[in-house]
């Protein structure tokens, strides 16, 4: 029998109604859907009631007999801007079995604001119909388009929440023609006619104060239109989907939210040739291809399953996180469990979960290493640890991103030690705290409030059986308040970097990382687009880079990447113990760096031991970077010597051979 699902929408013919149509298109084989405005819901009987606007949850629940209730979070304002909004949201949380959240940034924000009050959360990103929204040629007359509901306003939020007045002001300043399709003025077209609107625009402006997954962004990119979007500083975890999808100057632009910045960008686009704009539009369509509804609808199938599980447990007085038996990915020859078991999660603050009594394997303990995503920095660190300690520990791997998207939860009772590699993921309620160790892998515990640790941070650290930090500075700040803290940096696996870079006789620069890493307040952290890229292009420095969102490669390919260059660049605002800089040094590259993380520690150790250093410190400006590059470009022999010093430094003081005993002692503190 198919599951009966009630989809409660705000109004017909607009965003939530369109989402409902896509769910029916892709999930109707196993589900029977009813779509209804939430104000008309009355005495409905269904298996699952889904409130696409979270504010209708309490009313819909009072009018339905449903086994489970889902509340969806599609905006970033309504649940955080005022005490009354938060009060209403907390009331809603008492009635929701699962939250469907449109992006990971909002998940992190919700956890920080509401903590243990939250039911399980699942990711439900929007999709786009690539068959409806086809790649279109550029129009003959240049125009920038805006579409949305100009009257949309959250109490306590800005007046021009969707940015239509900002759009008008910017068009006037730039002297460009703007096309507006305003749903509040009775001009909203049927969804199937929206391609006509995008086809008449050269580029699309998305100027909302804060957005989740805005349809004009996805639909405009699918139609082959570059996107002009604005930043938002509301979320400490970044502004939303625009930053994830837009590559500056290739698929669009992300600028400050003021008329001058938007107008300058509009004028720049207007000055491009039609072929240049069309090429950016082609890039935009390629970038949005992973957001097809055929893929994104699968998240809803998982959401419905999780809701039924959580709803059933709520009726017995408790709620569980979504669970699905599935294999957990592992590396370096270790075996992970292939089944998941129930973990309880209370809606109200409750005592910490207690795992069943177990006898640990003291001779060869089994460690669960929890990272964020496969094949990136944390996972690489844990894979290297597993290799270094394979004669003392068995290590399996699990990824929080898969827990959120797919409900892939490991059975914590299978492990002697649980290693949580980063402290900010929403998983506290799932951890067996009597055998969990943790880590701070950055400079700050809470980058949105960059300040020395206090009582909040001391309490966080002391909750773990042991907790390690990757810089000596962090250790000194914590050691007098946290008896369980230890100093363990991110070592380099020299087995992966057996040889120095062969580049000599010229200077070739390199960088790798996540260029879209944003700090609180929307500040760029890594410095790739605003600092590094403009300078190396202006100076015509040969340059190799690998960027997480655009041309990411696998960890096993990184040694080959480092062998293409001999001078690494780090212009970060802050770091902990950067994998990128340490691996580049291990590969025999010289280093230009801002004074961040443990780079100063490595520099001072070199000077004490060798009398000189392979690291050149610079201020975080384009001028300082340009001066350093010009200086080193004139002396390739010096660059080679600096790289040799750096490789020696990593081998001698920062490799896994040096640190593995410390990690073994740290892990055993959990037993």
From TrEMBL:
Against SUPFAM superfamilies, the record matches this protein to:
UDP-Glycosyltransferase/glycogen phosphorylase
Protein name (record): Putative glycosyltransferase
Keyword annotations for this protein?
Transferase
Q: Which Pfam families match?
A: Glyco_trans_1_4
A GO MF term: transferase activity
Q: What CDD domains does the record point to?
A: GT4_PimA-like
């Amino acid at each position: 029998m198919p599951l009966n699902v009630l989809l409660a929408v705000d109004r017909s013919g607009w965003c939530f109604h369109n989402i409902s149509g896509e769910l029916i298109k892709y999930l109707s084989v196993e589900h029977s859907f009813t779509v209804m405005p939430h104000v008309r819901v009355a005495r409905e009987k269904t298996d699952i009631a889904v409130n696409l606007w979270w504010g209708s949850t309490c009313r819909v629940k009072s009018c339905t007999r449903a086994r489970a209730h889902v509340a969806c979070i599609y905006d970033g304002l309504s649940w955080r801007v005022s005490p009354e909004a938060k009060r209403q949201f907390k009331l809603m949380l008492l009635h929701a079995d699962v939250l469907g959240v449109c992006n990971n940034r909002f998940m992190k924000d919700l956890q920080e604001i509401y903590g243990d009050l939250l039911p399980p959360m699942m990711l439900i990103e929007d999709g786009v119909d690539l068959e409806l929204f086809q790649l279109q040629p550029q129009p003959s007359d240049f125009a920038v388009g805006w579409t949305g509901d100009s009257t949309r306003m959250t109490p306590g939020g800005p007046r021009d929440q969707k940015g239509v007045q900002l759009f008008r002001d910017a068009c006037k300043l730039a002297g460009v023609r703007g096309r507006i399709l305003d749903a509040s003025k009775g001009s909203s077209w049927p969804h199937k006619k929206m391609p006509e609107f995008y086809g008449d625009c050269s580029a699309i402006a998305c100027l909302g104060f804060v957005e989740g997954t805005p349809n004009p962004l996805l639909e405009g990119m699918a139609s082959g239109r570059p996107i002009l979007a604005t930043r938002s500083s509301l979320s400490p975890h970044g502004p939303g989907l625009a930053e994830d999808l837009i590559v500056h100057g290739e698929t669009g632009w992300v600028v400050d939210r003021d008329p001058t910045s938007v107008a300058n960008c509009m004028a720049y686009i207007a000055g491009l040739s039609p072929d240049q704009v069309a090429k950016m539009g082609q890039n935009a369509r390629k970038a949005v291809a992973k957001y097809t509804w055929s893929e994104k609808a699968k998240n809803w199938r998982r959401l419905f399953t999780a809701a039924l599980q959580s709803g059933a447990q709520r009726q017995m007085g408790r709620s569980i996180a979504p669970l699905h038996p599935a294999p957990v990915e592992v590396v370096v020859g270790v075996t992970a469990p292939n089944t998941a078991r129930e973990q309880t999660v209370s809606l109200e603050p409750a005592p910490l979960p207690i795992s069943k009594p177990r006898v640990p394997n003291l001779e060869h303990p089994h460690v669960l290493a929890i990272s964020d995503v496969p094949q990136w920095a944390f996972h690489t660190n844990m894979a290297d640890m597993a290799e270094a300690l394979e004669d003392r520990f068995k290590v399996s791997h699990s990824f929080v991103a898969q827990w959120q998207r797919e409900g892939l939860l490991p059975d914590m009772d299978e492990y002697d030690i649980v290693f949580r590699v980063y402290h900010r993921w929403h998983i506290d309620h799932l951890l067996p705290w009597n055998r969990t160790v943790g880590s701070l892998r950055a400079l700050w515990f809470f980058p949105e409030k960059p300040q020395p640790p206090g009582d909040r941070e001391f309490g966080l650290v002391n909750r773990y059986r042991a907790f390690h930090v990757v810089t000596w500075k962090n250790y000194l700040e914590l050691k007098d308040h946290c008896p369980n803290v230890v100093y363990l940096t991110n070592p380099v696996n020299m087995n992966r970097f057996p040889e120095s870079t062969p580049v000599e006789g010229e200077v070739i620069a390199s960088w790798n990382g996540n260029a879209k890493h944003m700090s609180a307040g929307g500040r760029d952290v890594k410095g790739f687009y605003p600092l590094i890229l403009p300078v190396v292009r202006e100076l015509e420095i040969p340059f190799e880079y690998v960027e997480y969102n655009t041309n990411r490669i696998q960890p096993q390919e990184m040694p080959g990447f480092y062998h293409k260059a001999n001078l690494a660049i780090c212009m970060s605002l802050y770091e902990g113990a950067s994998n990128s800089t340490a691996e580049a040094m291990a590969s025999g590259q010289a280093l230009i760096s801002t004074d961040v993380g443990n780079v100063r520690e490595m520099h001072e150790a070199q000077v004490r031991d060798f009398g000189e250093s392979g690291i050149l410190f610079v201020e975080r400006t384009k001028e300082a970077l340009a001066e350093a590059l010009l200086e080193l470009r004139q002396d390739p022999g010096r660059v080679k010597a600096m790289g040799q010093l750096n490789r020696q430094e990593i081998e001698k003081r920062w490799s896994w051979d040096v640190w593995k005993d410390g990690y073994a002692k740290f892990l055993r503190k959990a037993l």
